[in-house]
Structure formats: C-alpha cells, structure tokens
Description:
Elements: H1 4-13, H2 17-30, H3 33-36, E1 51-53, E2 57-61, H4 67-73, H5 77-83, H6 92-103, E3 109-115, E4 121-131, E5 136-143, H7 153-168, E6 173-179, H8 183-191, E7 195-206, E8 209-219, H9 220-228
Parallel strand pairs: 5-6
Antiparallel strand pairs: 1-2, 2-3, 3-4, 4-5, 6-8, 7-8
Helix pairs in contact: 1-2
Amino acid sequence: MRRWSEVAERVASTTRTSEKTRLLAEYLAGLDREVLGPAVVFFSGRAFPEALEGRSVVLRRHHAGNQAAFMRWYADPEIARLTRHQERPMRPDEVRRFFEARVAGVGSLALAIHLRENDRLIGTCAFSPLDGDNGSALFHITVGERDCWGRGYGSEATALMLEHAFGTLRLHRVALSVFAFNERAIRAYRKLGFVIEGQSREAIWRDGRFWDEILMSIIEDEWRTVRGRALGLETAAVTVNGVGVEGVTLDSVSR
C-alpha cells in the first residue's frame, strides 16, 4: 500500500475531482480494519461491485427492468410460503415498494443472479441492512425461476456473496433467518459454514401448525476455514471477486 505522503502528493498534483476521489478511496480501502474499522470500505465505493463472477452464475446490480421478474416471482405461492411471514403472495403494489426500498434502495447491496451461460435472470440476493460500524450484514436470497431450483445456483450465489462480504467488505459476521420446515435450505447453509445460533419459537404459521424461525450466522474465521476445506475451493473455477461451490443447493430459502 502507498504511504500517505505519496497519495497526498498525487492528489495535490491533479486538478480532476474524480481522480482525487479515486486516489483517496483506494488509499482508504487499503487501510487496516483494526485502524479505521470495517465501515471504511463502504465509503470507498467497493461495497457495490459491478459483478461477482462464479463458475455457473454471475451476480450484477439490478436495474429497473428487473422489477417485472420480481412481480412474477413473488406472485408464486410457493415462494411466498418459503420467504414471507404472510402466507399469501405479495400484491403488485407491495412488490413495487419492496423493489424500490430493498432492491434499488441505497441501504441494500442487492444483486441479480444471472446464469453465466446465457445471462438469464433467475433470482436475487442481498445484504440488507449493511452495518458497517459493527462489521455485519443480514443476508437474503431468492431463486425465483422454479426450473433453476436444485441445481446449486443459489449455493454458488451465496458463496460469492460471502466471499465479497469477508474478502472485500471486510465484514465480521453475516446472518440470516430461515423457516424450520425448510430443511433443505438449513442443510445447505450448514455446508456453507453457517451455524444455528437460536430460534424465534413458533413464529410462523404454515401448513396448519406453528414453526420456529431459525437464526443462523457465519463469522469471518469460520468462512476462512470452510472455503478452504469443506468447499474444496483450491480446485474450483474462481475469479478475483468470487468462488464456485459444488455439492450444496439453495433455492428460494430466505427473506
């Protein structure tokens, strides 16, 4: 990393505001987290990548045209069953508000899940909210296209997001919640290194009975261990920003 004296000299030598901002952002992003805290990365512009590339999926920022897919996905009763506290699907006006606040909103790092082979949009995942002061985030994922369920796309998207969280954003903790009847999702999250840390007892009414809402999380050190050993990433096809994962499957599993 360049010394501050070098950076200051380069900043002083340019008249372009955009270049000054870039130089300062690069310097801040390279500082040690213990010195400035994890929040520094959020001010560096690195929190919101253009793309995270894996072996089978690519994650990209959403655009307004993706709202049509959200309308279709969240009208699906099975997606409502797996992802909502309310049993009914979302109304169009609810989807619009959700998209504006949680997908396009500035407080959410939401990325569209595309198939790498043909760029097809199949789902969405997000960190919302991001807590830079405490180095944590809440994770959500939905694979909305049913014919893409059970193929590992959700798991790979989750791994890409975890790699971004701990590698680039320098977060310390990522958490999520999942309904207890979604046993496949819980198993898949475990394979990615998440651990159950508690539950909201009998918090959801589904299929004629009450179910617990399971609370899970993964800490930075746990991810470092899992990505090297359990996921076999030394042989996976990866890019600078992401990793691919085999053997686990996440579909429409978390809000």
